[in-house]
Specification:
Elements lengths: L16 E14 L2 E7 L4 E7 L5 H9 L5 E10 L7 E12 L13 H6 L1 H4 L3 H23 L3 E2 L5 E2 L11 E4 L2 E5 L4 H11 L1 E9 L12 E10 L3 H22 L1 H6 L4 H5 L7 E3 H10 L12 H8 L6 E4 L12 E2 L2 E5 L1 E6 L4 E8 L4 H10 L8 H8 L5 E7 H9 L20
Parallel strand pairs: 3-5, 6-10, 12-13
Antiparallel strand pairs: 1-2, 1-4, 2-3, 4-5, 7-9, 8-9, 10-11, 11-18, 13-16, 14-15, 16-17, 17-18
Helix pairs in contact: 4-6, 4-13
Length: 431
Amino acid sequence: MVPTVSIRHIAEHVGQSVRLAGWLYNKRSSGKLHFLQVRDGSATIQCVVFKGNVSPEVFELADHVSQESALIVEGTVKEDARSPIGFELDVTSVELVSEAQEYPISPKEHGVDFLMNHRHLWMRSSRQHAVLRVRHQLIKAIRDYFDDNDFTLIDAPILTNNACEGTTTLFSTDYFGETAYLSQSGQLYMEPACQAFGKVYCFGPTFRAEKSKTRRHLTEFWMVEPEVAYMDLAGDMELAEDFLCFIVARVLEKCRPELTALERDISKLEAVQKPFPRISYDEATKILAEKGVEFEYGDDFGAEHETVLSENFDRPVMIHRYPAAVKAFYMKADPRDAKKALCVDVLAPEGIGEIIGGGQREDDYDALVERIKEHGLSEDDFSWYLDVRRYGSVPHAGFGLGIERTLGWICGLHHVRESIPFPRLMGRLSP
């Protein structure tokens, strides 16, 4: 019986007869030859249908089969140096499994709204296929890094009764008569977890009801968040640096063909090496002033400021010790300057902006209670969180990395909407 194989492993079957189960990506004809580009989800291969090698019915079918029809193709695997994958299939038979109606996404140019409305089909295209394969490897690299460095995966809940990143960007829902929120971050849950396991991380979807239409924002995105007991800000920065270098190197190792297909300048990723530049918030504001960029000292940096700052470096830059007033209530104050927080943002180069935000958490009970009050939050809602400071409190730190912005940077994408299979944006809840 002829084996059904994956195109990705076609090199293992040179000279053999195989079956490919897939879809017609594209085709062209030249007299007695039909060239079918068949994809099976793992890769795409050219299948050559020669009139003299198949029945008249098969040759006719190959001539008229429509784009994205489901096919089972049999033939002999042959080496071909002209092929992008180095091989082609000399076809002996074609079976039509399901004929596609007129496929809406053609080689011509389509507008963004059209492509987003057809995202369920657009993801079949070669570019989107490459992006999502890189996403797969990026996520695997992230898990491998933490798993290989003795972190324990702890799943954080998606439904919560309190805010982590401010109350103005919460999605709320009724929870049996109570108000619940979609999680903005799993960090608050990782803090007690790290005092149980030492080194932990969570990885899952997070939600921000930000009324933003920039190319950097989604309302639903994925985030990985490590948290480590007995770690200070310096250790947190070292962890973030080592982690970023590892995942970029892994993607370079595993995804060269995909990055090439995306026309990514790989040299910019190869520059991601230790050490990363580290500058304080005050030093960053001086850079902005020197470049003539308007900025009010004490504010948080916006997209324009982050772009200008990152342009000064060929690798991610770490900016630390922001004013405590613009950071979350749980950030620990700098003992040398109580107006500053022991925090860090990591800005990716090439105008992507912040991909990591983190810092050392406030481990003093009384100081944290005061911060909760200053932010107008309910102490009762955070009673469980305060328990972490009641029972064996220790210094601890961590960060969150957004998958979509990081993937957008690695792939050189203009907009994060391409970095997630089914993006959620203002005004877009479908497909």
